[in-house]
Amino acid sequence: MASAAEQLASNLNFSAFAKAEDLKKRIWFTIGALLVYRLGTYIPLPGINPDAFAQAFSSQSKGVLGMFNMFAGGAVQRMAIFALGIMPYISASIIMQLMTSVIPSLEALKKEGEQGRKVINQYTRYGTVLLALVQAYGISVGLEGGNGIVSDPGMFFRISTVVTLVGGTMFLMWLGEQITARGIGNGISLIIFSGIVAGLPHAISGTLELGRTGALSTGLILAIIVLAIVVIALIVFFERAQPRLLI
Questions:
Q1: What is the pTM assigned to this prediction?
Q2: The domain containing residue 153 runs over which residues?
Q3: 111 and 34 belong to one structural domain
Q4: Alpha carbon of 169 to those of 108, 136, 172: distances in Å?
Q5: Residue 10 falls inside a structural domain
Q6: How far apart, in whole angstroms, are the C-alpha atoms of residue 204 and residue 16?
Q7: At 53, which CATH number?
Q8: Which residues contact residue 92 at a Cβ distance below 8 angstroms, ignoring those fewer than 6 apart?
Q9: Exposed, middle or buried, 33 (CB in 10 Å: 0-12/13-18/19+)?
Q10: Which residues pair with 44 in a beta bridge?
Q11: 160 and 47 in contact (C-beta within 8 Å)?
């Protein structure tokens, strides 16, 4: 008969194995969900000429448009179905956070705990749809104003563009919630992070090319690398910091 110590050891090993299996499932689910997101950034909107849009985007890729393209993982540059990305949800969340501080009824909901949080999250989803509708319609009108970008402009194109872009944003919002519940980490943050990381190779190659042509000095490139390492180290340091409470 096995001793009590052996039984305890076997139970501990089984528990650790079960946890490892659950962790593997969560990791694979997260990877699969992020791959679905990346695939969607390469599916263009129906009814547009990708070459004409790429030419128009190249002349406007600096500044705010380039920043939105970075957060969308390159979907704006390709005018993909995920071109709006998750930004309408982020904007709606910020607006809702501000409103809970100035509207007494929302502030009371916030203090109700889990039930109040669910109601606020539902309001945030409604706000996401509203913002996405406005932004998607603006994009459809802007695309029609481009030279040769839309093959068949008109109301049907506007409706299809709005439905596609809003549907893409809602799908990403749902995907982020699924990653949070069934994967690893915060799903919305991982979607944004994966979009930014996807653009790093292009940014690095562009920086090296500028250094090769002499547009950027070697010292400046080294300073950028050192600054990036320092920022990452500080983020890791503060994330792993543990407050010491004196009792």
A1: 0.75
A2: 23-189
A3: yes
A4: 29, 10, 5
A5: no
A6: 41
A7: 1.10.3370.10
A8: 124, 125, 127, 128, 130, 131
A9: buried
A10: 80
A11: yes
150 pLDDT tier (thresholds 50, 70, 90): confident
Residues 186-211 have a mean pLDDT of: 79
Does residue 8 form part of some domain? no
DSSP string, 17-55: HHHHHHHHHHHHHHHHHHHHHHHHTTSBPTTB-HHHHHH
Which neighbouring-strand residues pair with 150? Answer: 48
Could you give the CA distance from residue 124 to residue 126 in angstroms, rounded to a whole number? 5
SS3 sequence of 195-241 = HHHHCHHHHHHHHHHHHHHCCCCHHHHHHHHHHHHHHHHHHHHHHHC
Residue-wise pLDDT for 29-59, tens only, equals 999 999 999 999 898 888 888 888 888 887 7
Confidence of residue 243 (pLDDT cuts 50, 70, 90): low
Task: Write down the residue that tokens 């904007």 correspond to.
Answer: 91
